[in-house]
Each structure stands twice: as C-alpha cells, then as structure tokens.
Design goal:
9-stranded mixed sheet, 471 residues, 17 strands, alpha/beta
C-alpha cells in the first residue's frame, strides 16, 4: 500500500466543514486516500513518497465541471474571435467534426495538462462531436495516461439544420447509434466507487442540437445505470428564443417536461434564469457549472451565482471549451468568477439588484452580495464536487482522496499580500501550481508534468490544429 507524506506547508486550506486553515501543516495518505491532516509535528515521520511544502500554500484539488477538451485544437480560431454563441458555433462545427483520434488524444492531453498545472485534479469533459474516428475511448485513455481524475461524457448532437437544429447535417449522428454507444461506454468505463478515476456522464449537447426524444431516452438510460446527466442550458437569449418559438416554453420549463430536472443533473452556464427557475433548481437538486471567462468572451451574460448560492443551488466552476475561453487555467477561472460577480453587483437593473439599487455596493445592507475570495475557492473545490455528485473529493480531510496542489508564496506576484495568503490566491495574478497530486500520485512537480513527456504531445497537437484550420 503506497504512502504519501506532504509536510511543512505554510498554510493548508482544508475546506472541511469548519473551513480550517492550518499553519505549518500537511497530510498523510495511504493508497490514494487521506488518513490524517494536521500540523506537521503530528504526522508520521516517513512515507514512500515525501513532498516538502515549505514556503507554499496547499489547497484541495480544484474540480472543473465543464470543458470541451478537443477545442484546444481551435483556440484563437481566426473566423470565430468576435462572435456570440450561435455564429461562433457555426464557424467551428465542421472543424470539430474533422477531429480524428490522434487529434482527440493530443487535445485531451493538452487541456488536462494545462488544468493540472493550474491545480485541477478532477475534470468533466463534454465532447459531443464524434465524427472522423473521434471517440470517448481515446479521451479516457489519455486521462489515464496523464493521471487526472476524469468524468467523460458520451455527448451527442442529432438535430441537423434540415430538421430545425443549428449544426450542419454532416456533423450530427444517428440517434439509435448514439444510444447504443452510450450504453457501451457506460458498461465499459463507468466506475461509481469512492476514489474512482473514471466516470461516465450522458450529455446531449443543447436544446438546439438534439431532439426531445434523445433527451428523454438519455435520461432513462442514465437513471437505469445511475450515471449523471449534463447539457448546456440558458446560455444565451438566442437559445431562449429558440425554445419559445419551437416549444412555447422557456428552456428550464421545457427541460422539466422531458424529465431533466433532478439531483443527478447539472447544466452548463445557466445564465438567463429568473427567480422562479432558481427556486426550481434548488428544489429539484439541479446543479450549475459557472463559466465566467467563456460567458464574457462570447458576450453571453452574467450568471446569478450569488443568487444560486443563497438559494442552495449546487454551483461549480467550468473553464468551458478552449475555443471560447482559450485557456484551461482554473485558478484564472476562479478569480474571474469572483470579479464577475462583483461586476454584476455594481450594475443597475435588470442585471443588478433592485431592492437596494440606490444604496452603494459597500453599504452594510448589501454585504452579502459580494463574492469573496473564499467563496470563489469553495466553488472551485467542494462546490464542484457536489455538482458532480462526489463526496470523496473537494476537501482535505481523513477518508477523502489525496487530491491537492500547492503554490509558492515567496514570489513577486504575492509580495505584499501574505497577510492573507488564502485570499491572495485569487486577488493576485494567477500562479502556476508548484505541485499537483491526484489520488496520492504526483502529476506536477516543480511546475512540470511528470507523468509523461509533453514536448511530443505539443508537436502533435499543433500539427493536428493546423490541419483543422487548413480544412
């Protein structure tokens, strides 16, 4: 049984129920699970692997609840730099459909590596274009090779332009095949046990790219196999117009008619919702993946995250696809979540608060509207764990997975900010992880991926990306 000792951290953020922040502390783990967290002096003296965290802050591994890893191949895509969602998608659908197995593996590795280097240990990926040899299998294999905890989706698109959908007909799949392959992927790869490194999610893409029947059948299958459900929802006003015109219902109400509200469901973005819909999410247990950088990049809007939190809705962070964010840095995403919530606080209605609109944002009665650094860190850790339905990750305490990362505090970026090093992680410029550990295994050491040589991966990735652009 391999053991791990991480010791001498200047600060260790537990995110446990008491939200303890320990000084000169560390943790001890066996076989990937934490056995003890506390002051270094109280931990075992030796282990199979020892990490010295002197001068560093340690946090639970961040959880990414929404990504499109294959999109790293189309970062900064020239034809889609200044578009909102629908024209942006139309500019990119066929490029994504040309992604083959080689490109899919390379893009998955690149995205996961960038995430790991920013402290992410658990990743949900929403891939929904499976053409030209791309498949879930090569993505799961890539995640296993790198060593990141991976929730893979068997996503789907089935509603082409000729039937009223947004994607081109040659980018969608047959629904019978989608369901058959979904069953195959679940039966082959899903592991629901504590500490599992691979789980499968069924994730039809969006209200404007799949049929109602596929949404219903995907929900039935997911509940039969006890796996999670995910889709994009309430991302833009264009989507809302689409469901109103086609179904005479707003997106949330339409999804409710299809059996898509429940504690096994979470939605990406969830920006354009009213108070009644927020209450419906809270009542049914639906979660939300907040993707601030993408929402700003595409001009989609500002999700009411503080309202969600106040209502008890589960909220996690997602970096979203690397063609609408154009990075996979989850520390930067957490920082942006904090800042964007503060921007929303300062806006007049309809985006800002009505009740106290004539009181300044710093007035005491509005104190609860501010997104604090620690709240944003909660979204990135225990918030994401709750969204994915996992009780074994998200905090550093006995019995949970040994998933954590560290940041150097003795740096130019943090100089002058160490009176509160925890808040400095987000108030100051995002820094690269010094060490990242997943299930007791070191993935990043001294800022570099150590589970594989990334140099040839970068070369392959750039070659595959150029091929997509040329096409």
């Amino acid at each position: 049984m391999p053991t791990l000792l991480a010791r001498n951290a200047d600060v260790l953020v537990t995110m446990d129920d008491a939200r303890r922040e320990l000084r000169n502390a560390g943790l001890y783990a066996e076989d990937g699970f934490i056995k003890q967290v506390g002051p270094t002096a109280e931990l075992p003296a030796t282990a199979d692997a020892v990490i010295d965290l002197t001068g560093q802050i340690v946090l639970p591994g961040f959880v990414n609840t929404h990504h499109h890893l294959n999109q790293t191949l189309t970062r900064n895509f020239p034809g889609a730099q200044n578009n909102n969602l629908f024209p942006w998608l139309k500019a990119l659908y066929r490029a994504w459909a040309r992604t083959d197995a080689e490109g899919s593996r390379a893009s998955t590795l690149i995205g996961l590596a960038e995430l790991a280097q920013s402290g992410c240990t658990t990743v949900f990926d929403h891939t929904y274009v499976f053409k030209n040899g791309n498949n879930v299998d090569c993505q799961i294999e890539a995640a296993r090779d790198l060593g990141v905890r991976f929730h893979a989706s068997r996503g789907s698109m089935s509603l082409g332009e000729s039937k009223g959908g947004l994607p081109p007909d040659d980018c969608v799949e047959d629904e019978d095949f989608i369901l058959k392959d979904s069953q195959r992927v679940i039966e082959r790869y899903h592991d629901g046990k504590p500490g599992s490194m691979t789980q499968v999610v069924l994730a039809p893409c969006s209200p404007f790219s799949v049929t109602a029947e596929l949404l219903k059948e995907s929900a039935r299958m997911a509940r039969h196999y006890k796996v999670k459900l995910h889709t994009h929802l309430c991302e833009t006003m264009d989507e809302e117009r689409y469901t109103l015109e086609r179904f005479q219902l707003r997106p949330v109400d339409w999804m409710e008619t299809l059996g898509w509200l429940g504690d096994d469901v979470w939605f990406a973005h969830a920006i354009h919702v009213d108070d009644e819909e927020i209450a419906k999410f809270a009542r049914t247990g639906c979660g939300a993946a907040h993707c601030p950088c993408s929402n700003m990049r595409l001009g989609s809007g500002i999700a009411p995250v503080k309202k969600y939190m106040a209502a008890g809705v589960k909220v996690g962070l997602g970096v979203d696809g690397s063609a609408s964010n154009d990075s996979s840095n989850i520390i930067a995403e957490a920082r942006q979540a904090m800042l964007l919530a503060r921007l929303r606080l300062g806006l007049l209605p309809p985006e800002g608060p009505r009740k106290y609109m004539f009181l300044g944002p710093s007035h005491a009665v509005r104190a609860g509207e501010w997104m604090t650094a620690r709240e944003a860190l909660e979204l990135a850790t225990i918030g994401g764990a709750r969204v994915l339905g996992r009780s074994d990750i998200g905090s550093l305490e006995a019995g949970k997975c040994a998933d954590f990362f560290s940041l150097d505090l003795d740096t130019v970026a943090y100089a002058g900010a160490l009176h509160d090093p925890v808040a400095a992680v987000l108030f100051c410029a995002p820094q690269q992880a010094r060490h990242t550990v997943v299930h007791g295994r070191q993935i990043v050491r001294d800022g570099e991926i150590v589970t594989m040589d990334m140099r040839p991966v970068i070369g392959t990735h750039n070659r595959c990306a150029a091929r997509l652009l040329e096409g």
